[in-house]
What we know:
The protein is an alpha/beta fold. It folds into two domains: 167 residues, NAD(P)-binding Rossmann-like Domain (Rossmann fold), CATH 3.40.50; 89 residues, N-(1-d-carboxylethyl)-l-norvaline Dehydrogenase, domain 2, CATH 1.10.1040.10. It has eleven helices and eight strands.
Amino acid sequence: MTTTTTDGPAGAASQVTVLGxxxxxxxxxxxxxxxxxxxxxxxxxASKSAPLIAAGATAAATAAEAVAASPLxxxxxxxxxxxxxxxxxVDAAVAGKVLVNVTSGxxxxxxxxxxxxxxxxxxxxxxxxxGDPPYVGTPNVMFPFSGSRSAFDAHESxxxxxxxxxxxxxxxxxxxxxFMAQVAVGxxxxxxxxxxxxxxxxxxxxxxxxxxxxxxxLGGYPPLLTSFGKAVKSGAYGPDxxxxxxxxxxxxxxxxxxxxxxxxxxxxxxxxxxxxxxIAGGHGEQGFSSLFELLAKRQ
Length: 299
């Protein structure tokens, strides 16, 4: 079930509840208050609501009372365990409401939350936050959402107040898929970058100057990423970055160089092992993107 009213600073549609007042939840609530929304807040530690009350929000004594106060309820808690506990305490109060859960969690948890909400007559949107609290309310924070299309349509203009938003589909788990994948790209790149800084430092190179040069070269990667995505989707792998037959020889140099100066080479060894397997399978003429075919977990 979803509200059919039009969002805006008038009437019931301008009422929103925020459950959870950590740094991110407080930033979300403050954004709504500043935009003229009648904002009800709740937090397990009640004292955290004081700054928001001073700004114009209303604090509820319990999570259930907070849910009852508004047609739209944004949940921003520490983790999925906290979400389960709070949802268990509100239960029947969610009937007829729209829950927007922006707490970090897995796709499976998002789908379980959607089932829980549906069984109690509530609409459900799962969202994730890609950015920091000071930037909530600006385009510098990205909020992917998934779940009930009617709930998203009904409250899209309100959600847009929080930052740049995108809807990924009816499957409630898709926002979590997007979030985890985007974050994973960052971690994979950054740990590789740190490995490389260790390498250049061991060779006596100024790491700050090297980092600046790398930053200047990153503009060449977007077309490559796009081509990788197309290759994986189609299964047609051209010799991007050159054929694996040629690249595998380079990997030997990469590994020996690192090991000769005492720098960890585990990541390069992993790449070389994948290349060797792909070549042994008769695909040495293909490029780096074809390593995708070997990345399923081995049984």
